[in-house]
Structures are given as C-alpha cells and as structure tokens.
Design brief:
- This protein has a single domain, classed as Cytochrome P450 (Cytochrome p450, Orthogonal Bundle), CATH 1.10.630.10.
- 54% of the residues lie in helices and 7% in strands.
- The chain is globular, with a radius of gyration of 23 Å.
- The N terminus is likely disordered.
- Its cofactor is heme.
- GO terms for molecular function: heme binding; iron ion binding; monooxygenase activity; oxidoreductase activity, acting on paired donors, with incorporation or reduction of molecular oxygen.
C-alpha cells in the first residue's frame, strides 16, 4: 500500500472522524503544532478544530504573532497565520491587490459565488458601489430605523415582557437570530418573514444559514479534494449543505412571491423605493442571472443577520457577568429616559436610534465586545505574487493567509496585560467624553481598507437600539452550568446557545 494512498485515506478519514465525534473532544490544552512525517501539521490542526480560534491564539502568542502551518505534500495546504496589525495593514491597504480572496474561496463558498463575499477586482468595485449607494440613501436608512423601532416595540419587548412575567428561561442566541433574521429580510424583500413571531418553533431557513457557515468552515480547513469527495458521495457535512441550499432556494422563492404580491397590492412603486433593496438588483442587467441574484441575497442575509445577531448574544452574556457595566450604561441612558412620558404600569421605555447615536459608553461596550468576540473571527486571503510581510516573513504565490481577529484582540502586546478582561473603558478618552481612536488594522471587526464594512453605521445603530431597550427595561441573568464557547464556524456563534432568565426592572 503506497504512502500516497495512506496519506490520502487519512486526510479523508481523520476529518470525518473529528467532525462526527464532537462528544469525545479532548479536554487537554492545545499544544503547538507538531510536524509529523508525511501529514506534517495537519493532525495537530484537525485535533484542535473544535477550538481552533483559541488554538490559533495560543500558538500566535507563543510565536510572535505569526506562524506557518502546512499539510501533506501536494494538498495545497500552505498557510501563513497572523494577528500582527502591521501585516494586516499591508494585506488590506498597502498591497491590497496582491491579497485577493481568490478563486478557491469562491469555490468553497459556491452558494454565494458572485456576491461581495467572494469576488475581487472590478466586479467587487462595481457591486460595492451599488450596495454603498443603497445603504447610504437617507430614505433607506430612515426606513430601516423605523422598521427596527417598530420591531423592537411590537415584537421584541412584548416577548421579553412575557418571559419576565412567567419567569421562563429561553435561548437568547435563538431569539437574537430570529429577530435579526426578520430585521435583515424586511428591507431586502419589503416583506417581514415573521420568524420572531412564530412562537419559537423550529426555523429551518435560519438553520440553513448556520449550516452554510459551518460547512464553509469545514471546507476552509480541509484539502479541496477531501470535501469534494464528500460532496460527490453526498455524505457528512456536504449532505447537510445540499439540504440547506434547497431550503434557502425555497425561502427566497417564497419571499420573492410575497414581495410581488405585496407590491401589486400597494400599487405605488415609488412608495416602495428605498425600502426594497432587491428591486435595485432586479432593475440592473448585470444581475439578471437568477443564480447570481440568489447568491447576493444569501450573502446579504448572512452579513446582516449573523454579524449583529452574534454580537448581541455575546454582549448580553458579558453584561450579565458585569453588573457595574450595566449600571454605567443605564446612567448614560437615564437623561434620555427621564424626558420620556411613560403611560401605564409596566410600559416599556424605547430609545430612538437618534437618541443613542452619541452615547460614548454604550458604543465602547459594543466595541469591547467586538474586540474579544468578532463575529468573523478569521479572515482569509490568497497570495497572488511572492511578497515579504512587514514582520519579515516571506509568503509565496498560492499561499493561504489567515488573519485571526479573535487572536488579535487577545494579544498582550497590543491591548495590555488586561487584554482578556471585558473593559469598555479602554475605548474611552481620558476626559471620558470621546472614543479613543484605534486604527482599523488593529481592530478589524468591520474589516479594513477597500473591504471596509458598508453596513457598519447601520449595524451599530441596530445594536445600540436593541441593547438600550433590553438593558433599561430588564435585568438579564445567565443560568449557571452552561458551557459557553464558540462553535467551529465562519461566524463566532455560541455553540450551545445562551439560556437566560429576565426580571422586569422596577423604576
């Protein structure tokens, strides 16, 4: 039996074993990668796949913020992993064109091929310009703010009030996922899918989006032939992805049908302008292809739902552990709340997006959460031409680069000895009136350079509005005995959810 055959067999079977045996994960701390014969560092990476972001952090901290990893010969697994801000600036700004996402990335995320998530060059510039014009439209921003306010008032707060009154625990992660799903889909289609009001029944379409990110992560870490073999056999994670794709296509078709009916019933196209994002793409011949339109829709849903929904879950988890931070947020909200007329016992106080826009400490709390729990924990790039990093490391054409945002927020050399502490004050100026400036190549939660997040301001507005409403009106308690950890995915979701109980504040 040849060495090539043995290595190929191991490359296929080891990931499958690790993927399915999640209940037998090692509890020993991660070790530095071992360079094994033939398979090189592949077994070490696979053994730590379940906690890969903490593993990267451990290795990066012990290797000066940069290290190389490679797998079996001929598998194309040549990685350069970094959390060095100077390298990040070089990759995202100084020599941006030399570090595209690359063709392999588009193949890995084929369900979103052609969307901003996967493309480079002129197609990326053209699509970004289109999305930027929509998301910067005053009418679009205003309509999204109005919808958010109404959704918080009529759906989120009533649900939380009910949970507080009956003392029932619930999964905050699932709630935020449902809420942000509706909040993302409504301006896209002009129709509210109503996931939040479906009595917390199973949500197939949201699970399908989660599957896209989980299997995408699996593909990123595997040799290409490995996951393609699983896809041909239609087994394991590839079978799950196939089912998820079918669910998403059916959902998009259903929403497009509802959108058409809704538009016809309204009868005034101009009244819908600036509210229905998909109309702008339908009217553009560049996006006439149905598969491309589906890819753009799925990419938008993942960006709009997952980044905010995931961050909100981590915010509420950290606030529950830090009542002093909750008190300071309430003190900042108090002058606004005192100006509101509250009618009736138990009436909720709602904060308008414009009212929370200038709140420094609330913003600092969001940034501190994003520092430690970036929704996109790792960014991936490909090297087009041989280059030398500012750190002195050489990278070669075809190498894959992983920039670990998760690790960057946990480096003592970058954030100090208290880098693992949840401390919003690190973002506030000495006079307490302004936010400190931190360059985007050190704080990459919203990306950097030509890939800077187009929805940053909208995402911050959404998070501030939701956090202010929940924190002011309720005390949140995380139930003890939970295992709080991120799951292996492109998105830094909590693997086991976040079970909480609420108590209505007495004011």
């Amino acid at each position: 039996m040849s060495v090539t055959f043995i290595s190929t067999l191991l490359v296929i079977l080891v990931p499958m074993y690790l993927y399915h045996r999640t209940s037998c994960r090692s509890k020993n701390p991660a070790e530095l990668p071992t360079n094994w014969p033939i398979l090189h560092m592949f077994p070490s990476l696979m053994a730590n796949l379940h906690n890969i972001y903490d593993y990267f952090t451990l290795v990066l901290a012990g290797s000066g913020h940069n290290f190389r990893a490679h797998g079996p010969p001929g598998m194309g697994m040549r990685f350069f992993i970094t959390c060095d801000p100077a390298n990040a600036r070089h990759i995202f700004t100084t020599n941006y064109t030399n570090f595209p996402k690359g063709a392999e990335f588009a193949v890995i995320f084929d369900i979103m091929d052609g969307s901003l998530f996967t493309i480079d060059g002129e197609p990326c510039r053209r699509q970004r310009a289109k999305v930027k014009s929509m998301l910067s439209s005053p009418r679009m921003v205003a309509s999204m703010a109005v919808y958010l306010r109404e959704k918080v008032k009529k759906s989120l707060l009533p649900f939380l009030t009910q949970m507080a009154c009956i003392g029932t625990s619930f999964d905050m992660k699932e709630l935020m996922s449902r809420f942000m799903f509706d909040t993302a889909a409504t301006p896209l289609f002009g129709v509210d899918p109503g996931l939040l009001s479906s009595d917390m029944l199973p949500m197939d379409v949201a699970v399908a989006l989660d599957t896209v990110m989980e299997v995408g992560f699996f593909r990123l870490m595997m040799p290409t032939f490995c996951w393609k073999s699983l896809r041909r056999l239609n087994i394991g994670p590839e079978r799950k992805l196939g089912i998820a794709c079918t669910v998403l296509r059916l959902f998009i078709g259903e929403m497009m049908e509802k959108r058409t009916i809704n538009t016809c019933c309204v009868g005034h196209v101009k009244d819908k302008e600036g509210v229905d994002i998909i109309s702008s793409f339908l009217e553009d011949p560049h996006y006439a292809d149905n598969d491309l339109l589906h890819a753009i829709i799925i990419s938008y849903m993942l960006a709009a739902r997952d980044t905010v929904g995931t961050t909100l879950t981590w915010i509420f988890y950290n606030l529950a552990q830090n009542p002093n931070i909750v008190s300071r947020i309430r003190n900042e909200l108090s002058p606004i709340a005192s100006r509101k007329v509250v009618v009736g016992v138990g009436t909720m106080v709602l904060f308008e997006p414009d009212e929370t826009k200038s709140l420094v400490y609330l913003t600092a709390t969001l940034y501190e959460t994003l520092r430690l729990y970036p929704p996109g924990p790792v960014l991936r790039k490909t090297v087009a031409v041989d280059d030398i990093m500012p750190s002195g490391h050489k990278v070669h054409a075809g190498d894959t680069i992983f920039i670990s945002l998760y690790s960057m927020g946990r480096m003592r050399a970058l954030w100090g000895k208290d880098c693992l502490h949840y401390k919003p004050d690190r973002w506030i100026s000495d006079d307490g009136n302004n936010l400190r400036y931190v360059p985007s190549h050190k704080f990459l939660a919203f990306n950097s350079g030509q890939r800077i997040c187009l929805g940053k301001d909208i995402a911050i507005m959404q998070m501030k509005t939701i956090v202010a409403a929940v924190v002011w009106n309720f005390d949140v308690k995380v139930l003890e005995g939970q295992s709080i950890k991120p799951k292996p995915s492109i998105i830094l979701e909590m693997e086991n959810g976040l079970i909480v109980q609420l108590k209505k504040r007495e004011m």
